[in-house]
Design brief:
By secondary structure, the protein is of the alpha/beta class. The protein has helices spanning 3-8, 66-82, 94-110, 144-154, 176-189, 204-209, 212-220, 224-237, 269-272, 289-294, 310-316, 339-348, 361-364; strands spanning 14-17, 30-31, 40-41, 114-117, 120-122, 129-131, 133-137, 161-165, 194-196, 241-244, 248-251, 261-263, 275-277, 318-319, 325-327, 335-337, 353-356, 377-383, 386-391, 411-416, 425-429. The chain has a single domain (3-26, 52-458), classed as Metallo-dependent phosphatases (Purple Acid Phosphatase, chain A, domain 2). The protein has 13 helices and 21 strands. It has a six-stranded mixed β-sheet with strand order 1-21-20-7-8-9, with helices on one face. Strand 8, helix 5 (176-189) and strand 9 form a beta-alpha-beta unit. The chain binds manganese (II) ion (MN). The site of manganese (II) ion has 7 residues, from loops. Manganese (II) ion is lined by residues 139, 168, 199-201, 252, 358. Pfam families: Metallophos (PF00149).
């Protein structure tokens, strides 16, 4: 079945949103004359609008409020347009960053590898069941202003709206730190109404190649290494996948293998018995949720070899049009899985839908048989038990590109609603314009286009 065939039979609704630029106008600006900066600065720009409460401070009782979050949004929106990156500590002092990351990190590390999200909640006041809307979001990649638009458009997280983010908050875009901090703040404020899954870019390897490490070092200066380490610690705590209302599986990359552990052939008593993984790829089979739940996700970089392969599969895999499971040779880590595997996975777990992310317009340009990412999503497999979709939420991606020609892709998010939650409603949206000027934190002219061709040797697997 081709992707174009599957597209026609699947969507229930698709709406295109109109771009709304921010209402809060920054102060009048002039081009800065400094040679190494493209930031817009003027004599008045260093004084923020009076309605902003900054620098941010940590509430004495440690409890964040909706006002605190809205002020954080307004401060980041203003600073991203008016301050050079090295001035971020004047908005978010490192001690406030520390407090937020500490609380969020503790929360995230306690969550299971695969979250079970139940949108049917009993309302203790009325005794009635309240049913909630679920919003699923794909890759964001540091495009803060597009995320702010998405949150306004979909409606903020609240008691009756749960958000699930599929990872890749950082790298490539210029505001990965602000993006990640904002999502952590929502998590701390409403821990049961926003869930943050890990993407392959929430790793030491990716952030050292695609800009986030340099971004944090630039923004926090002599405290940069400290702040970057705190971010990595938080990344290690991010859960890997979710099941929504018992019928929708979401993860950044997708499906994962079974890890058959077998004792070695020469057991020399219990102590010396070595556990080896069967390396025969002909034996690849889909893993169970029990295996997913016992994988060790607290690693700086998911390993591509050894016994702990499930995190790498969930974060790095891609669907294929070829049946079966095979090693993902394009990426060097993770799997390719065919429509038959999608069917097996859905059927055996009584699921209706898989929502994964991980492939933007650049990756899709090279993938025969798959739809592009012009609308921010694609329907990849349509099988008897349900569907597999790819969701990408960074419009006009990537922010920095060496060529004149841009993809001009829309971003999208998915809304799932009662009673069954299994039918995705797609909302596509265009990039916020104009995007504030910024310099890239990586060499986007030389760095490889997509995440394939990894330099595996430099990954941290300890
Ligand atoms: Mn990815």
């Amino acid at each position: 079945m081709s992707a174009s065939e599957s597209n026609s039979s699947s969507t229930t609704c698709s709406s295109t949103m109109i771009v709304v630029t921010d209402l809060a106008e920054p102060p009048p600006t002039l081009e800065s004359t400094t040679t190494n900066s493209t930031y817009l600065l003027s004599s008045s720009s260093s004084s923020p609008p009076p309605e902003l409460d900054l620098p941010l401070s940590w509430p004495p009782d440690g409890k964040l409020s909706l006002d605190w979050i809205h002020n954080l949004i307004a401060c980041f929106d203003w600073s991203s347009k008016n301050l050079p990156p090295s001035e971020l500590p004047s908005v978010l002092p490192v001690n406030v960053f520390d407090s937020l990351v500490l609380v969020a990190s503790k929360m995230l590390h306690k969550e299971p590898n695969c979250l079970s999200i139940d949108p049917f909640r009993s309302n203790s006041d009325s005794g009635a069941d309240s049913v909630e809307t679920v919003v699923v979001v794909g890759d964001v990649h540091g495009q803060l202003h597009d995320l702010l638009f998405l949150l306004r458009d979909a409606g903020y997280p609240s008691d009756n709206r749960i958000f699930i983010f599929n990872g890749d908050y950082v790298d490539r875009g210029a505001w990965g730190l602000e993006t990640f901090v904002l999502l952590l703040a929502w998590k701390v404020f409403l821990p049961h109404n926003i869930y943050l899954l890990r993407g392959n870019h929430e790793s030491k390897y990716c952030t050292s190649v695609y800009g986030f490490e340099k971004e944090v070092l630039t923004k926090y200066g002599d405290k940069g290494k400290h702040a970057y380490r705190k971010c990595l610690g938080c990344f290690e705590g991010l859960p890997l996948a979710s099941i929504i209302a018992g019928c929708v599986y979401t993860a950044h990359g997708g499906l994962f293998r079974s890890i058959p552990v077998t004792p070695s052939k020469r057991p020399k008593g219990k102590k010396n018995r070595r556990i080896v993984v069967n390396p025969d790829v002909r034996c690849l089979s889909l893993g169970s949720f029990e295996e997913l739940s016992t994988a060790r996700r607290s690693v700086l970089d998911p390993p591509w070899e050894g016994p702990n392969l499930i995190p790498g599969d969930v974060l790095w895999s891609d669907p294929s049009m070829t049946p079966g499971l095979s090693p993902n040779k394009e990426r060097g880590i993770g799997l390719w899985w065919g429509p038959d595997c999608t069917e097996e996975f859905l059927k055996s777990h009584q699921l209706k839908l898989i929502i994964r992310s991980h492939e933007g317009p650049d990756a899709r340009e090279k993938r025969d048989g798959f739809a592009g990412m012009e609308e921010g999503y694609s329907i990849d497999h349509v099988v008897e038990s349900g569907k597999l979709i790819t969701l990408f939420s960074a419009p006009d991606y990537p922010q920095f590109q060496a060529t004149e020609k841009r993809y001009n892709n829309k971003g999208a998010y998915v809304v799932l609603q009662p009673p069954d939650f299994g039918t995705p409603i797609f909302h596509s949206f265009e990039a916020v314009t104009p995007r504030p000027k910024a310099n890239a934190f990586y060499d986007y002219e030389d760095v490889i286009d997509s995440d394939e061709e990894l330099d595996l040797a430099s990954m941290v697997t300890a």
